[in-house]
Amino acid sequence: MKKRMTQARATYRHGNLKEEAISQALMLMNRSGIHHAALSIRKIAKSLEVTHRSLYNHFTDKEAFLDAVAARAFEQLAERLKNATNKSHFAKIYLGYACDRPQLYGLMSGRQHATMKHKPALQTAVHSVVTEAIRVFNSENPTPLGNRREIMKLHMLLHGAVTLRLAGVLDVEDDQALIEDVSAMLESR
Question: What fold is seen in the domain 1-59?
Fold first, then answer.
């Protein structure tokens, strides 16, 4: 009886379960190529050797869990973008992140911005990427409208390039060729 209770306790007490669940989802999506639609709280709980109910203490439902995973991905991307020194370098970092993590990028780009005001952690994470874009792509006419339009053009170019590449529409040799082509477009502007 005592041995059985010890085994149960070993899986019952977990460090920071919320963080571990998010990290596990990122790992599964990045390394195993699992699509976010195939992620489930049960699957993550099983991989962490906890009950799925214990994860519901941290995430109200699957969408809240996916929002948390997407927020972490945006935070990671923003952290990398802090190293961008110019427009071309920004594009290389952004496109490299997205092309190396197609399933995760799909999750990130699938979060609806219109509903983010009700999801402050996700909104903050997305805005951290936008902040880095503003830092690097500050237009010659630094009005709020000028910056907004510059960032919109940037996002349309980068997101469009990634989406078309991942869909197999663009006729480029590989991800690196795409990154070089888009970077060259930005350098010539």
Answer: Arc Repressor Mutant, subunit A (1.10.10)
